[in-house]
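Trying the structure run again after the queue cleared.
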Amino acid sequence: MRHLLLALLLFATPLWAVEPDEVLDDPVLEQRARDLSKGLRCLVCRNESIDESNASLAKDLRILVRDRLVAGDTDAEAVDFIVARYGEYVLLNPTTGGANWILWGAGPLMLLIAGGVGAAYLRGRSKAAAPQDAHLSADERERLDRLLEK
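Done. Tokens:
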């Protein structure tokens, strides 16, 4: 019974996509690789990190990260290499510098513009003159009566 509970606990733990043949011998390098892999997006799964994804492209990226670290790259150099190859989309947390300021600022800017347009519309509506009751002339009243009789 004890063995069954132990087996259930082992299988209930979260499984990572990193396969044993990918794991580096140096535990420090392996931890750095895992930390970097958690911040890189799987380009197939889109909302998973390459550390969690089982896609073949994610495996290739995990191996690439480990190769770069073994070659002596710093964490920043390894990430820059991947970004240069696959674009900034590969980052799970995109940067806020450069052209990305346009994307980060577009939402709040559009909200301010929409609020300004709405306020201008409401202000213009409140200043508009109230519609007056239009009185019909005798000829118009006679014509309307003839149209309504038909």
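Residues 100-127 form the longest helix (28 residues). Worth checking whether this holds up in the mutant runs.
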